[in-house]
Amino acid sequence: MSRIAVVPGSFDPVTLGHLDVIQRAATVFEEVHVVVVHNPDKHALLPISRRVELIEQAVSATGIRGNVRVASWSVGLLVDYCTDVGAKVIVKGIRSQADVTYETPMAIVNRNLARVETMFMLPDPSHAHVSSSLVRQVAGLGGDVSPYVPRVVYEYLQGDTDTSIE
Question: Which reaction(s) does its UniProt entry say it catalyses (predicted)?
């Protein structure tokens, strides 16, 4: 049984749905690594270093167990990170059938490459409709994203929605 899990994502920005999955993973695994990964297919709002800081602050503010570590990874495959830290499980939040369709091939490849299993976790239904891209769009148009993001993210976005692009 794996005692270490990795919860990867772009987290641009981290949402309450992400925190829900992180918190529940922290109750299942002895150690959880939240890994901010660079996705070259996405147009980033926040620099990776800022995303890491915001996740750390949100995890701390919500009282999630102390077994959560936040890191970034941009060199090589995610399973390389998993191997480096001894993780045998990747935890992915799944909101819809589209997410399952997208994530399944990656889960199979990760298992084949490094014997790292993927565990799909459903978010709380109150967060199932929220994505980082939706938050970016609403925030960019001046809408209220406070119901969808941790307070620290909301405050950051209120002060600086035009951050540099990676």
Answer: (R)-4'-phosphopantetheine + ATP + H(+) = 3'-dephospho-CoA + diphosphate
Which residues belong to the annotated binding site for substrate? 10, 42, 78, 92
* Rg, the chain, Cα only: 15
CB 121 within 8 A of CB 30: no
Q: Is the confidence at residue 166, as pLDDT, over 80?
A: no
Burial environment of residue 69 by CB neighbours within 10 A (0 to 12, 13 to 18, 19 or more):
middle
If you classify domain 2-156 with CATH, what class do you get?
alpha beta
Phi, psi of 2 (to 5 degrees): -80, 135
Q: Mind telling me the catalytic residues?
A: 18, 42, 95, 132
pTM to 2 decimals? Answer: 0.91
Binding residues for ATP: 10-11, 18, 93-95, 103, 127-133
